[in-house]
What does this fold into?
Amino acid sequence: MTAHSGQPGHPGQAGQPGRPGAGPVVYDPVTLPADDNVNNYTFCVELKGNEWFLQKGKMIAYYGAIEFNGIGHGRLDRLVRTSFHSPLHASDWVVASGSGKMLLADRAFDVNSYDLDDGNLTIRSGNLLAFQPSLALKQSIVPGFLTLIGTGRFVAASNGPVVFMEPPIRVDPQALVGWADCPSPCHHYDHGYLTGVLGGLRALTGLGGVSGEEHQFEFVGTGTVLLQSTETLMPEQHTGAVPPEPGVPGSGAPGAAGPAAGLPRLPGQLGDLQRRFGL
Amino acid sequence: MFRLQGSKVLAVEMAGDAVKAKNGSMVAYDGQMAFKKLSGGGEGLRGMVTRRLTGEQMTVMEVRGHGTCWFADRASEINLVTLQGDKLYVEASNLLATDAGLRTGTTFTGLRGASQGNGLFTTTVEGHGQAAITSDGPAVVLRVTPQYPLSVDPGAYVAHQGSLRQSFQSGVTFRTFLGEGGGEAFQIRFEGDGLVYVQPSERNTIAGDV
It folds into this structure.
């Protein structure tokens, strides 16, 4: 996976701070970059008869003749079949087609584009902004995440610039944006908060001090992990429900996941209390 | 003389002259400054009445003195606009400061204002000088020429200048009512010659969910 930083390749960024005398850069269809960032917060897509998938309401302006269609639309059925495999949240996505240049942005969050070369990337659903139809979008079996597979470019937003890390690594759950080409993460808890009656009481009540970093996601293998530089999550985008079958995580079906019958679990509790006391 | 200090603070150097700025937007000054509230946007009795009638309220102060005065508004990004006899159209809430020599007024916007949820009227700034407008995230300045008209999401529109015609363009079809809309149901189309300021963020508009 290759990433394109928010800085555009050419000098003279619009709204560049601290440069007295220089007026703002004025863009027209010729000077706007093609499939690249205009500034850290705005991305420009060039359409020449091709199509892009984008999340509803993220287009801020466009030149040329561009049409936006909901993807339930009959003419786009073939496209949906080849590159859109999450029919259950199809109403959140639109297809832009036509020719011209289109600007995308998301609530003034940082925007970056990435290239996948016959790869795969799993990303938090609220962060994905747009992608080329040469990529296939699928729901991840990790609830709240989406997976892109194939070759092509996609645009993702993050709260603050994105940092790239290589496994093995443990990351804070709120800072995780996504991961590429490596196995899905697992939970990791600090040992001291898991063992003994005192550890259980401490996790339960917070007495004795919690650092707030007792729980991480652990990545192993080879690949790339994408982190945002803040722990403020972007609002989540609903990925759609999964079929209520046994064995499907997040489906709520009997036999899927969830605690065995017994005492109800209290919020903030890491393990069942009766197990902790050896009952 | 307007200059940006960082991207969120406006510094104005003054030598006995004056600027009009949003009430309460001064964050610091050195030298000698006098602040005076201007009723009705400093447009006299007529301005007071029209602003009251149109609901395009603008509380403005006049800052006069010698030295440097710094302005900021809720950590929003500031964009400088230079006017050479042309007219800037901007929402009163996005206008941070103008040279005292610039005339401000109100104008009817029609459907565009309604689609943004900003009301039917907007503020104009006219003359020779500089103005500072605020936006959520740094604004992108897009040029409109007769061969390149531009369509803008009403929620991302901040301001425009020059001689532009705007029309309201709707993508609402029967599919919108079936819940399969394109998500971009309304756009403002700009034609003519001028500049449009667009912010990388969308206000909540009626069209946002369609």
Observations:
- Chain A has two domains: 32-158, 159-234+269-279.
- The first helix of chain A runs from residue 77 to 83.
- The interface with chain B takes residues 14-15, 17-20, 23-29, 38-42, 55-57, 59-63, 66-73, 91, 94, 103, 105-108, 111 of chain A (CB under 8 Å).
